[in-house]
Amino acid sequence: MKTSFLFVLAFVFCSLISIGQDNKFGTYYNQRLTLFEKLPDTKGEIIFLGNSITDGGEWCELLGNPRVKNRGISGDTTEGVLFRLSEVTRSKPAKVFLLIGINDLSRGVSKDTVFSNICKIANRVRKDSPKTKVYIQSILPVSDMFGLFKGHTNKTAEVIWVNVQLKDWCIKENVGFVDLYRRFKLTDSEKMNPKYSNDGLHLLGDGYLLWVEIIKSLLS
């Protein structure tokens, strides 16, 4: 009797920990993650993994490829991606395209931690799914010209630093690196080109078309 009681108590305790961890990342995070967990895995998946910028892309249509899966969650952070990474790797995807980090910076997470966590994500994918090709995409430029998302759009210096570190790390570790930043910024400044964003953070249709142009050759 005592053993049964302790077993039930342990089960309830572990369940509460799990619920607490899930709630830590918010309601929308939980909605998306529970959906991802129910969707069927398919052979040779190409995963787009990230925050709202990834979430907003109709990737299957943009790329004309039914194997492409959107695993973006608006508001997500490097910690959130690490927490849900087992859902991504369980299908042993062919490729993972990762874009993450700006929300961390907006919440005061240090640039060193953002860089370190992105590297951890890539290494976890490679460990749990060794045949998966990982592409780390640079954090996009931001712009304060619209007066919106002020906690995000004042992080240009940190974004540049993280991107430089990521590029060097990817070369050293033989991980794919995609330099989105250079193509999305204005030619005469470090701000996001307003052709591609109307709020300084998220993308317009032309932004997604540019993104596809940059990466399409990597999907074949």
Commentary on this structure:
The chain has one domain (39-219): Rossmann fold. It is globular, with a radius of gyration of 18 Å. The protein contains twelve helices and five strands. It is 53% helix and 10% strand. The protein is of the alpha/beta class. It starts with a helix and ends in a 5-residue tail after the last helix. The longest helix is centred in the first third of the chain and has 23 residues, at 2-24. The chain has helices at 2-24, 27-38, 52-55, 59-63, 78-83, 85-89, 102-106, 111-128, 150-153, 156-173, 180-184, 205-215, and strands spanning 46-50, 68-72, 95-99, 133-137, 176-178. A five-stranded parallel beta sheet has the order 2-1-3-4-5.
